[in-house]
Design brief:
Number of strands: 11
Shape: elongated
Protein name: CxC1-like cysteine cluster associated with KDZ transposases domain-containing protein
InterPro entries: KDZ
Helix content: 40-55%
Strand content: 15-25%
Organism: Pisolithus microcarpus 441
Length: 320
């Protein structure tokens, strides 16, 4: 077929251009797909290492700008594959809101006729990590607003997956009342909740003072992930220029309550402390009405006090 644009004509030939108007460098789709699969199996395999490998295979001297060109083409390729997947899902009628979240785990999300209900309709765990940091590179000069300007290339990727929570959605739970509540949470627990929560004041994972020094270095500090008891990914969110604030688990729980409803059980390494945060947040009334229960995972539970384990380990919990 006749192509009106150079870029689309090149894509029909099996290559992705690094520039949409007058491209001088193209990268084959096979090379991009090989890197995509390799990166999934080894996230430490960087674009620069892969480009150096291609240069050695072609007998070409490596230049740093080649990594930037490959990164541009790779972003375009990922967006093209996402668009194709979106069209396929539409044809298969799998594009309704939250469709992938509702069908991510057959054992958790599918209910048989006459099936005996369990204590927890879905048992999930959530936690953050420290291994997916991304440094924000900035210029020494400042922009018009007095902030250091970023020198990173803008990405054209737009995530359409219903299992990824955008920053806009997460920031809905960063209201001033929640932020102030989290800052005063330790003192509140020590004074009023020490009998209900035996671990009051002992867990500082959500203390933002520990990680605020990294804000000027990292743009994305980590991710927070929720998985079901069978290991299937439910929801994911980026932690941007902050530590493990309460807004991230609150946003995940809000989405899970919206989609799956009542009788959810959520394991968190500081679930005993977070239970108070959830109860005092604007999400608290909904969580109580849907009988959401905050738990502590077995792995982290061994570090909690015995009384806390009796209240928050799944083995010892009883249906109300």
């Amino acid at each position: 077929p006749y192509d009106n644009f150079v870029a689309s004509a090149l894509v029909h030939q099996g290559v992705i251009p690094c520039s949409p108007i007058t491209p001088t460098v193209v990268i084959t789709i096979r090379a991009l797909e090989l890197y995509r699969v390799s990166y999934y199996h080894n996230p430490h395999f960087s674009i620069q290492a892969y480009v150096k490998t291609l240069c050695d295979l072609h007998g070409y001297e490596f230049q740093h700008y080649l990594s930037s060109q490959f990164s541009i083409a790779f972003d375009v390729y990922l967006q093209l594959t996402a668009s194709v997947d979106s069209l396929v899902n539409k044809v298969l009628h799998c594009d309704s809101p939250n469709w992938h979240l509702k069908h991510c785990c057959p054992a958790c999300t599918y209910t048989l006729e006459g099936e005996q209900p369990l204590q927890f309709s879905i048992l999930y765990a959530l936690d953050g990590n420290d291994s997916l940091k991304r440094i924000q590179r900035k210029l020494l000069s400042e922009d018009s607003e007095g902030q250091s300007a970023s020198i990173e290339l803008p990405t054209c990727q737009v995530l359409t997956c219903d299992r990824y929570l955008s920053c806009e959605f997460v920031d809905q739970y960063a209201s001033q009342d929640v932020v102030s509540m989290v800052r005063n949470e330790v003192s509140y627990l020590d004074l009023q909740d020490s009998e209900v929560n035996p671990c009051a004041g002992h867990w500082k994972n959500m203390d933002d003072q520990k990680t605020k020094k990294t804000w000027g270095v990292y743009d994305e500090t980590r991710i927070i992930l929720a998985v079901c008891r069978h290991g299937f990914s439910l929801l994911m969110a980026d932690m941007v220029q902050s530590g493990e604030l309460a807004k991230y688990p609150l946003a995940i729980i809000s989405k899970l309550l919206e989609v799956f409803g009542k009788d959810l059980g959520g394991g968190y390494d500081i679930g005993c402390q977070f239970k108070t945060t959830l109860d005092q947040s604007p999400l608290g009334p909904l969580a109580r009405s849907l009988n959401h229960m905050c738990l502590v995972g077995t792995f982290h539970g061994h570090a909690h006090r015995r009384l806390c384990q009796l209240d928050h380990l799944t083995t010892y919990t009883k249906a109300p």
